[in-house]
Amino acid sequence: MSKYSKMVETNQKASKEKTDCAIKAIKEMLDKEEQLLVCKLVRKTGLSRAFFYKNPTVSKFLNDARRQQEGKVFHQKKKVILDYALERQNELIKMEYEKSQKENQDLKAENEKLKKALKRKDVAFIKGL
């Protein structure tokens, strides 16, 4: 029976460590004001999804923590960064467009001047005949 009791004791110790690890990860996410998602907790702890739902202590702690986060709006960091990059790129394109518009206007004005000069030369040439 001692082998059996040692095995039970070892399993209980491992379960306690897993529970502590899960609760610690949940607390860290709460402190950092990250959205509590089981998939993030799985990645962070290496525990299974089922562990977070089936373990009564962890499940209760997770539900309580989620209640604390009710009403908060979370933004994904990746999306915020991509949105900023897109806005910056749009600004650069807008500046390039404005520069092209100005260059276009300058070229049109120069074209008109050259047309007038060409007409004057034609008139002078015709008068010279």
List the defining traits of the structure above:
129 residues, single chain, mainly alpha, 84% helix, 5 helices
Any overview of this molecule?
This protein is mostly helical. It folds into 2 domains: 67 residues, no CATH class; 55 residues. The chain contains 5 helices and no strands. Helix 1 runs parallel beside helix 4. It is rod-shaped and about 125 Å long. The N and C termini lie far apart (128 Å). 6% of the residues are buried. The model has no long low-confidence stretch (mean pLDDT 88).
What would you say about this model in short?
The protein has 129 residues and is mainly α. Helix 1 runs parallel beside helix 4. The N and C termini lie far apart (128 Å).
Structural class assignment:
mainly alpha
Major β-sheet annotation: none
What percentage of residues falls in helices of 4 or more residues?
A: over 70%
- The first-to-last residue Cα distance is 128 Å
Return the domain count.
2
What's the number of helices? 5
Calculate Rg over CA atoms. Answer: 36 Å
Q: How many distinct beta strands?
A: 0
Let me know the average pLDDT: 88
Order of secondary-structure elements: HHHHH
Parts with pLDDT < 50 across at least 5 consecutive residues:
none
Overall geometric form: rod-shaped
What is the beta-strand fraction? under 5%
